[in-house]
Write a structure and sequence with these properties.
With 230 residues, this protein is mainly α. It has helices at residues 12-25, 27-30, 45-54, 57-73, 90-93, 104-114, 126-129, 133-140, 150-162, 171-186, 215-229; strands at 5-8, 38-41, 78-80, 120-123, 191-194, 212-214. The protein folds into two domains: 5-103 and 218-229, Rossmann fold (3-Layer(aba) Sandwich); 104-214, 3-Layer(aba) Sandwich (Rossmann fold), CATH 3.40.50.1860. Helix 6 (104-114) crosses helix 11 (215-229) and helix 9 packs antiparallel against helix 10 (171-186).
Length: 230
């Protein structure tokens, strides 16, 4: 029996890309038009933003648990969260969660290792890039990593929070993001983690100077595999 995927959503654009990927790629494994049952729960992004701005990670965890409980009541079998930043609160969530989770950084780290990368660069909001979410996952599979410099971290956050999560995808900002990736390449990175689930909407292997690790689609594919395996 195919599992029921619960999506703990935070920002709409990343969650929508994850949901769409599940529904469009699952037929390759399950047959024409077929995909696992999927339920999405999304608190207001303003509630998450208020907690993030205040550094209130317990508050972030409570919002994630609200979604977990709602998705459990809806019949989900396991949970995914297509938002890298709030994974910083996942350790607070898991002990109280009614359902198991797939961890986005662990999924990405396994893919990086499988592809033979040794030193991915980490991109995303400053909350994510400055956290241990990706360093811990990468080191667990024996990989090194690199963070952007302070100015680049600030610029990443500004573009993500002021533009991408609001559905604004400008050419000027995309060019700035690509230059940040170029600086990671010069710092010795052999790949780049698109550690904001909106980043794959403007960056991919076609325009990036480094091979990309698309956290959004990788999480969606891991969820498909988990659901199909039961």
């Amino acid at each position: 029996m195919t599992g029921h995927i619960g999506i703990v959503a935070c920002s709409a654009e990343g969650a929508a890309l994850c949901y769409r990927t599940i529904c469009t790629e699952a037929p390759q494994r399950m047959g024409t038009y077929a995909h696992p049952e999927v339920t999405v729960h999304t608190p207001s992004l303003a509630r998450y933003a208020a907690c993030l701005d205040a550094g209130h990670w317990d508050g972030v965890a409570e919002l994630m648990l609200e979604s977990a409980e709602a998705l459990s009541r809806a019949g989900a079998d396991f949970l995914i969260c297509p938002d890298n930043t709030i994974h910083n609160a996942l350790d607070r969530v898991i002990p109280r969660s009614p359902l198991p989770w797939l961890h986005i950084a662990e999924v990405v780290a396994r893919e990086a290792r499988a592809k033979g990368f040794g030193r991915p660069g980490i991109t995303g909001t400053s909350w994510l890039v400055e956290s241990e979410v990706y360093p811990a996952a990468l080191e667990a599979v024996g990989l090194d990593w690199e963070r952007p410099g302070a100015e680049d971290r600030a610029e990443l956050s500004r573009i993500i929070m002021d533009e991408l999560v609001c559905g604004v995808f400008g050419k000027t900002s995309t060019a700035r993001l690509l230059r940040i990736i170029e600086r990671l390449e010069k710092a010795g990175c052999d790949s780049v983690i698109l550690g904001c689930t909106e980043l794959p909407l403007v960056i991919d292997d076609e325009n990036s100077s480094l091979p990309t690790l698309d956290s959004t689609r990788l999480l969606a594919r891991a969820a498909i595999a988990r659901a199909v395996s039961g």
